[in-house]
């Protein structure tokens, strides 16, 4: 019925906790990679497996922590993550977003997000939605009942079985970027001449900032 | 019109507003390390773009470098994946002629220690780095923010950060600190008060007599953890203490330029009557030494406090992970390791503070390992000149080479499963210092005194 406006439809997995930090989302040993892909198997590594993971390991050989929500049979194939306050706090590592996406998450819904993580999401096309506490509780329940959740990004509405669950706020431009995938750098570079003018003026005013390299030891 | 320090710094750097409503903010200084930059350089190359202004960029490897066996340089990194990352930084810097304090350079160190120390962090600047603790540099009246890797690429390509304006918060810490209470305790007490999301969307200016009387090193410790309060930027106004800190640093302006710079820097403070969206006041004399007991920096209490009741799922989960019983005295927590270091507390003052406590004492036999990791080669050299290394070594600490080390344990310095550590770093997240490791954030003085006793002690009674 609303299909034409659906940005995403799927089942959610509940991560019912505040302050999920980026060290949990992707532990540091996996940050050594110089690529943007391949982080999915190590998403929430310390919670998903019973052993300590290391980069390049065969995942099949590892012991799974069956208790952790992502590993529970009923939450298999979920691609929406629902959590609580201050999701993505801690380090600026964009690897956190890359690993959520690589695992297959399309949307992260939380009561609030840490600033840097929130920006990183948009820069990669992962949709972060923040909602009020009671709406999060509803979604956590729907997730547990394995109800399908539908996100209409165009109209900024979340549905479940045609019932409206919540209306969410999103910056209009950021919405456009998620929907159309714009080249941020390219867009900023259309302002090149303004940047050059600004830079020249700044160099005249505060020349010490623009000193060349000093290789003396 | 009355402006806040944040507003002034913003106004000095606002280039233009894009059609989407966000602003382009000109970036004076871009700091680079090995972990968050490779994908940005790769992206730049794929798009056929070049860095906008080479001289804005300064790089140093810090997260991955080993703290032992440094004479071998890159070859001393046994982990092949980590080595590749350091080599990649080397190659990217060489290709673009970016100034790097590489693994062999005596100036190498934690990027947030190196910048101010070299005079590369100067008042009035905008500074970004692909690292959330970039907030540290705000101690020198700069607007400094951590960014993600896509933003690193954006800054490399355009010399601008695409961003929106933050709100203004001022935290005034009045009165005088008790003896034995340090900047680390101040910043932890603030987080305990406002929570880890209390500063989200704000730039926090720290003010009041406690801050005014604090050294730049101490102010850096305070601003370093602004991000742990959720704020992307921490700030302190420029004053004589800032001026004296910067004077004669290698990259600081000299002669005529110094005079010109000083004149501009004088304005870097919040005007009388400037509007803050949120004001918080704390009586500095009421702050006690702080110890975290959980897995988020807001899970903190006074050193003479007790482990709280698990009133919600987050605390319950944290206490489980930390293996701590509600009602237990903080001072009864037995320690396995002690770590003095990180961009929060690895500057010369921090080492002096710890050494003062340790002088003539021995680390308890029950401590498996105690290490001290200076923030940079320059800090290390200075400490050696002052004989601090000897005090540490004689007391039973291991004296290491500079880097991030056990702050995030990407290198071999790690906690064992279940071990409790008194750490001067900034994050007590699960597994942060090693798989299954249990971190307690404290000041260098508390870490040192607790190393001697094998459990937490109130350093006020110790000195
Ligand atoms: S010392 Fe720790 S917090 Fe600071 S930059 Fe290094 S890893 Fe990050």
Low-confidence parts of chain B: none
CATH architecture of the largest domain in chain A: Alpha-Beta Barrel
Number of domains of chain A: 2
What overall form of chain A do the CA principal axes indicate? globular
| Percent of residues in beta strands of chain B | 15-25%
Tertiary shape of chain B: globular
SS-based class of chain A: alpha/beta
Q: In CATH, what is the class of the largest domain in chain A?
A: Alpha Beta
Q: If you average the pLDDT of chain A, what whole number results?
A: 92
Radius of gyration of chain B: 21 Å
Main beta-sheet strand count, sense and barrel state of chain A: 7 strands, mixed
What percent of residues of chain B adopt helix (DSSP H or I)? 25-40%
Number of extended strands of chain A: 7
Bound molecules: iron/sulfur cluster
Coarse structural class of chain B: alpha/beta
Question: Please, could you describe this protein's structure?
Answer:
- The complex is a heterodimer of chains A (217) and B (463).
- Chain A has 217 residues and is an alpha/beta fold.
- Chain A has 2 domains: 8-181, Alpha-Beta Barrel (Aconitase, domain 4); 183-217.
- Chain A has helices at residues 22-25, 45-48, 95-103, 115-122, 133-144, 172-180, 184-189, 192-205, and strands at residues 8-15, 80-83, 107-110, 127-130, 148-152, 157-160, 163-167.
- Chain A has a 7-stranded mixed sheet.
- In chain A, helix 3 (95-103) links the parallel strand 2 and strand 3.
- Chain A is globular.
- Chain B is built from 15 helices and 19 strands.
- Chain B has helices spanning 5-13, 38-46, 80-96, 111-118, 149-158, 183-194, 209-212, 216-224, 240-246, 255-265, 313-322, 348-358, 377-385, 388-395, 444-453; strands at 14-17, 23-26, 29-32, 57-59, 99-100, 126-129, 143-146, 160-163, 167-174, 202-207, 233-235, 278-283, 290-292, 300-302, 337-340, 369-372, 398-399, 420-423, 438-441.
- In chain B, a hairpin with a 7-residue loop joins strand 13 and strand 14 (300-302).
- The longest helix of chain B is centred in the N-terminal third of the chain and has 17 residues, at 80-96.
- The mean pLDDT of chain B is 96.
- At the A-B interface, helix 4, helix 6, helix 7 and helix 8 of A face helix 2, helix 3, helix 5, helix 10 and helix 11 of B.
- The structure holds iron/sulfur cluster.
- Residues 62-63, 110, 112, 131, 133, 342-343, 404, 407-408, 425-426 of chain B line the site of iron/sulfur cluster.
